[in-house]
Amino acid sequence: MKKMKWLALLSALILLFLSACGSSSTTTIKIGEVTRSLFYAPQYVAIEKGFFEEEGLEVELQTTWGGDKTMTALLSDGIDVALVGSETSIYVYAQDSKDFAVNFAQLTQTDGTFLVAKEEKPDFTWEDLKDSSFLGQRKGGMPQMVGEYVLKQYGIDPHNDLTLHQNIEFANIPGAFLSGDYEYVQLFEPTASVFEKEGNGHVIASFGEESGHVPYTVFMAKQSYIEENEENIEKFTRAIYKAQQWVQETDSREIAETIQKYFEDVDLDILTSSIERYKNQDSFAPDPILDEEEWNNLKNIMDEAGELPDGDISYEELVNTEIAEDVINN
């Protein structure tokens, strides 16, 4: 009889323990990524390796296709966190937004595009771009501004020394280059490598190597959201930092295998070589801190492109490094 009572008590305790474990709260955070890109490998790693889950977070990832659409989704509360170029936070701030976007965790620290030519260019020099037909990116976006910045470093005026086309939507640029009469284009990986493999283009230069460190893609949230959810933002940043460290320490093949589900139509070897390209030029930020030198480089690039708004673009207001610093130190 006593044995039965003990068994009943033990069963009750086990059920109570399981119930307590099951009741632990999980917070959902909605992320909007500006595009689907291998350039964002650490984000996919954070999901697939369970780093968000370890922090008690469940992320809902959606691709919002373009900086303007991403920021509209963020400001209208369609998403909680945006993964987008940090220049967008400057544009919003310049519009005197009362609840502006704050950059809190940097993901990539170089431009992610490569110069792709339709024909082979074994002896390529930047001078070859003069008088050519160049399929550019969206006006005011980071790829286009960095592209113009690099060309100017080589004495090329992108609006007068070549024919610059900017009338194609971001998602349609690869197809337009393939079917059009353009000689050059800026492409992200793995698209650039796919074009190479299929004989539709040739990677001849890297804009990331030419432009230096810049806060190219950053996680940002509205000021009010960060203030009201600081603990969850810290957990989010910690998950990203774990992924950044893992990417730094892991070979490209294993990274590619880990995130292959996000690029189902791309051969594993292409994913591997593309990740290796990004790793070789230090595109993946090793930690989430956006430092002031990178911020100033961003402003110089925007200024060169004629896109930097008038007035003080405050690093102190638009960048929060305290959360990332706490994560790294603890």
From TrEMBL:
Query: Superkingdom of this entry's organism?
Result: Bacteria
Q: Where in the cell is it found?
A: Periplasm
According to its UniProt record, where is this protein mainly located? periplasm
Q: Is this entry keyworded Transmembrane? A: no
Q: According to the UniProt entry, where is the signal peptide?
A: 1-22
One GO cellular component term noted in the UniProt record for this chain: periplasmic space
Keywords (alphabetical) are: Signal
Q: Which Pfam families does this UniProt record tie to the protein?
A: NMT1_2 (PF13379)
* Keyword Kinase on entry: no
Q: Which PANTHER family match?
A: ALIPHATIC SULFONATES-BINDING PROTEIN-RELATED (PTHR30024), TAURINE-BINDING PERIPLASMIC PROTEIN (PTHR30024:SF47)
Q: Which family does it belong to?
A: Belongs to the bacterial solute-binding protein SsuA/TauA family.
Report the protein name in the record. Answer: Binding protein YtlA
Source organism:
Ornithinibacillus halotolerans
Q: What is the lineage of its organism?
A: Bacteria, Bacillati, Bacillota, Bacilli, Bacillales
Q: What gene does this protein come from?
A: ytlA
